[in-house]
Design a protein that fits this description.
Radius of gyration: 28 Å
CATH class of the largest domain: Alpha Beta
Number of strands: 23
Strand order of the largest sheet: 12-13-14-18-15-17-16
CATH superfamily of the largest domain: Metalloenzyme, LuxS/M16 peptidase-like
Helix content: 40-55%
Distance between the termini: 49 Å
CATH architecture of the largest domain: 2-Layer Sandwich
Strand content: 15-25%
Structural class: alpha+beta
Length: about 950
């Protein structure tokens, strides 16, 4: 697992910090030398087996048992956008695509097919990404036998050493990259990114480098030129190969040596680029004005990044910086809770080798109140500069850090191989080292006493000593000179006074006096599931696992969600985002944060279509208290008018952004059409309904949702069974019995819209982009389990064929989609969706390609190789997911009284492995073939007004 440099958002990224053994108060222990520690005095993690081949290639391998029978492989090439010249922008990313299009001995498309036969799915298990500094190839292999691992590495090694870069295939792949660029960078996103680079990265090479390139630079990439770029930068001395998995480290390393050892770089190594130097922007403030933009303010303090290796000497100051940023971010967040001009705000730090270090403060203002919001933010900043924070503020953040570090050590025993592999690649990418997790935990305990409030203030002053740069994004016109004047004025604002802190304790909670009584126990022995029902009707479904050591997942589901509501009336479920903003029970949100510091007891709330959910991630020590706070959220929710106003402000600020690209229009307005206009399933509320929802109506709706209906607790993980049952008996099991109005059969009978029609929607983004979605009505997921599984296999095959033929064969799209929407809480509802974002002129081409594929499968069925690859990837994905708590938490949350649900879990892997071509052909012929009963289409086209511009 990577630890990185940011402590924000409750995630500890700590991989670059360490302390010498003397600081830890114990003698140094010898550890194996590692190339990663070159220039650093921080000790290596002895679990990593590392080496450098004679050709300069670096590797790191590690045994990791989770998931069983899997190996995560990563190949990082130090060739990204910063290695390009001006005329080569986008070439590193284009080359990433071409590496998959064949190498010596592996024809185009064959490499992906080999991995699919081994169970790895293209796009999820096998993928790649390009950054400013590197291109990284990823393969999660669900096999550990030598033959499979060696074959997978053979393909990867060929991609790195002998990519063919065929001219004809390059012309096709260039269209794919252009489609990816158009889908990833709609006009508003491009405008924002260009403004940010110009304002925050002035003088740096990164200011002038676009990972996705431009249409002109991509067009200039001939096969010969791209091949020369490949030979220049794809060299063994710029490569790091990582393999982590359920295998002998010596085997992992031996195959790397054998497959990559003969690789030789062409000519002498290229010199590093001139990365530039930080320069002041042309003005302290810049603006982006766009009617579709969400109003925001970004402040940045930019300093040069130290590209030297991480050492112990840098440890102390960087740690102090993270504490200071956490305190500052918490104060800014609290401003949003108190109302005023700030809707939301926070601070973070980012660092990037060869680029810069940036302290960022981001503010979302109310409507056009950007000036008072800027003043309000600088009131917080200037207070931090003027006086040390309170000791309890610092302690709150230090307690949180201690918990995260302790948790990281525990989690390390059960970490998944892909996260471990990604972690060391990220450390390499950022110039960090990867010491053992316990080393960081122990170092923190020694350093903690030095992190006083006075030192935090000193650190804040150092971080914010330079001139801030401002970028104002507004949906209404603002003069740049006005933004600059407002920045100058705000910097002079007097520091805001800090509110007094009330002492809080869990003893202040109001809890039931007498525990409830369990009245029945049902065991599903072969799945390891136990169900306990209490006298008041509350159900506890639990499964003990060792997947995540000392980790417990808790989900409390209440009521029926929207299912028992009027299908013709708008539902204010969108307002769930305001719940908890006012706190719960006797505690404000800020007090809850202080109460939960250093512990895992804080609940979060979410509203699904079938229930209201309160979730917690906890451990054995905190489980009982987590249940107490969860119960308080369920029974003593505070309904804050400030919180509702914040949510309304956020909605208003971001509403127009929904029209900025085809996919966001589809998600907001097209997806609900799949439910034939049933307003319970709307994705986006009507702006008028948002404006008109009163504080009293908001509170009344949620009180009703929480007051009635069944309560079910799903608990998964490493818990004590009797202690859990007792804790539930003292909380949810002790509630009085509840009234229940379950949904009627009519309310559950949800159908897709009438067949044969086309819903046309419009976006206001790139006029050269459109989205087409074909929907096919199918049975509910449990209505006919065999058919559902056959359709899943068919979908896997169709997606592969769309990728092979329409993406790779014609360059028609970047990412075709094929998925299903079959919620098992709607017994007879289901749709399968096929689609792609394309140029408007290519909608007919996509439809023709899809029709050919479906007609072929309906007429002849899949060929043996197509079927085998689809079955292998599906079975491997399910097999891997069954070793995670998340999978079983989903199982526990469903209706376990339905024998079909239990049967589906018991038989799913075997059913996919035994699936035959005839079943797939029958399912396609009945439900998916062109003209099938129940098929219809959603198109998102450029708005006529946009196209006219």
């Amino acid at each position: 697992m990577r630890f990185g440099r940011s402590w924000l958002g409750g995630l500890l990224a700590f991989g670059l910090f360490a302390a010498p053994a003397a600081l830890l108060g114990r003698p140094a222990e010898p550890v194996p030398a590692s190339w990663q520690q070159a220039g650093s005095d921080i000790p290596a993690d002895p679990e990593w087996h590392t080496g450098v081949l004679s050709n300069g290639l670096h590797y790191a391998v590690r045994r990791n048992p989770r998931p069983a029978g899997n190996i995560a492989i990563r190949v990082r090439i130090a060739a990204g956008a910063l290695m390009e010249r001006d005329a080569q922008q986008g070439w590193a990313h284009l080359l990433e695509h071409m590496a998959f299009r064949g190498s010596q001995g592996v024809p185009d498309g064959e490499g992906v097919k080999i991995w699919q036969r081994l169970g790895a799915r293209f796009g999820s298990d096998s993928n790649a990404f390009t950054s400013q500094r590197a291109t990284t190839y990823q393969l999660d292999l669900p096999r550990t036998d030598f033959a499979a691992y060696d074959e997978a590495m053979r393909v990867l090694a060929g991609m790195m050493q002998d990519a063919t870069i065929d001219a004809h295939l390059l012309d096709t792949e260039r269209q794919v990259v252009l489609a990816e660029r158009a889908g990833s960078l709609p006009p508003l996103t491009r405008k924002l990114r260009e403004a940010m680079r110009a304002q925050f990265l002035t003088g740096l090479l990164a200011e002038r480098r676009d990972i996705l390139g431009t249409p002109e630079t991509l067009a200039a990439a001939s096969a010969d030129k791209l091949r020369a770029f490949y030979k220049q930068w794809y060299r063994p001395d710029r490569a790091v190969v990582v393999a982590v998995g359920d295998a002998d480290p010596e085997l992992l390393a031996r195959v790397i040596r054998e497959r990559f050892g003969s690789w030789q770089g062409a000519g002498s190594a290229p010199p590093e680029p001139d990365y530039g130097a930080i320069a002041p922007p042309s003005a302290p403030a810049a603006t982006v004005i766009d009617g579709q933009a969400s109003n925001s303010i970004s402040l940045e303090w930019v300093t040069a990044h130290d590209d030297a290796p991480m050492t112990m000497a840098r440890f102390d100051e960087e740690f102090a910086r993270d504490v200071a940023l956490r305190v500052l971010s918490r104060r800014l967040s609290n401003e949003g809770d108190r109302g005023g001009a700030i809707v939301a705000a926070g601070a973070r730090f980012s660092d990037s080798p060869h680029v810069a270090d940036e302290v960022s403060v981001t503010i979302r203002p109310r409507a056009s109140d950007w000036r008072p919001a800027l003043d309000q933010a600088f009131g917080v900043i200037n207070a931090m500069l003027a006086a040390p924070p309170r000791q309890e503020e610092v302690d709150q953040q230090l307690d949180a850090m201690r918990r995260i570090l302790a948790k990281s050590v525990t989690d390390g025993d059960t970490a998944l191989s892909n996260s471990v592999a990604d972690g060391i690649v990220s450390d390499v990418d950022e110039g960090d080292v990867s010491a053992a997790r316990a080393f960081y935990r122990d170092a923190f305990e020694r350093i903690r006493p030095s992190l006083t409030p006075a030192r935090v203030r000193t650190t804040v002053r150092a971080m914010l000593a330079g001139e801030p740069r401002l970028l104002l994004v507004s949906s209404t016109p603002v003069e740049t000179a006005s933004a600059a004047a407002a920045l100058a004025s705000a910097r002079r604002v007097r520091g805001s006074a800090q509110a007094r802190v009330r002492s809080v304790s869990l003893d202040q909670l109001r809890l039931p006096a007498a525990p409830g009584k369990p009245v029945s126990v049902i065991k599903i022995d072969d799945l390891g599931i136990e169900r306990v029902r209490f006298a008041n009707g509350v159900e506890l479904a639990m499964k003990q696992t060792g997947f995540d050591k000392d980790r417990i997942g808790l989900v409390v589901e209440i009521g029926h969600g929207v299912l028992n509501l009027d299908s013709a009336a708008p539902v204010p479920d969108w307002s769930a985002g305001a719940l908890g903003l006012g706190g719960i029970g006797p505690f404000t949100r800020e007090e809850l944060g202080r109460l939960a510091a250093g512990r895992e007891i804080a609940p979060s709330v979410a509203y699904g279509k079938d229930s209201f959910a309160i979730t917690s991630s906890t451990d054995r020590r905190d489980l009982a208290d987590a249940l107490k706070l969860s119960l308080t959220a369920a029974t003593q929710m505070r309904y804050s008018s400030i919180g509702l106003r914040r949510l309304k402000d956020q909605f208003e600020a971001g509403y127009q952004a929904n029209f900025s690209q085809p996919m966001s229009v589809y998600r907001a307005f097209g997806a609900p059409a799949l439910y034939a206009g049933d307003k319970r399933f709307a994705s986006l509320p009507d702006p008028r309904d948002v404006r008109e929802l009163s504080d009293s109506a908001f509170a009344a709706f949620w009180r009703a949702q929480l007051a009635g209906g069944p309560i079910k607790l799903s608990v998964i993980g490493d818990f004590d069974r009797d202690a859990l049952v007792d804790a539930v008996a003292r909380t949810y099991g002790a509630l009085p019995p509840r009234d229940d109005a379950p949904p009627t059969q009519q309310q559950l009978t949800v159908r897709p819209p009438a067949a044969g029609g086309t819903l046309a929607l419009h976006h206001r983004g790139d006029v050269d982009q459109a989205l087409v979605i074909r929907a096919f009505a199918v049975p509910g997921s449990l209505e006919n389990l065999a058919t559902t599984r056959a359709l899943n296999v068919a979908s896997e095959i169709v997606l592969t064929l769309l990728t092979d033929r329409f993406r790779e064969g014609e360059g028609g799209t970047y990412s075709p989609m094929m998925t299903s929407d079959q919620p098992d809480w709607l017994p007879s509802y289901g749709v399968v969706l096929a689609g792609a974002q394309v140029r408007p002129s290519r909608i007919a081409d996509f439809e023709a390609a899809l029709d050919r594929i479906l007609t072929e499968l309906a007429t002849r069925g899949p060929d043996p190789d197509q079927l085998a690859r689809a079955k292998a990837t599906l079975a491997a994905r399910i097999d891997r997911s069954r070793t995670t708590n998340g999978y079983w938490l989903g199982v526990l949350g469903r209706n376990l009284d339905d024998p079909r649900r239990i049967d589906s879990v018991r038989t799913q892997i075997a059913a996919y492995r035994d699936m035959d071509a005839a079943a797939v052909q029958t399912a396609v012929a009945r439900y998916l073939k062109p003209g099938a009963t129940g098929s219809y289409e959603v198109r998102v086209l450029p708005d006529d007004r946009t196209a006219a511009k």
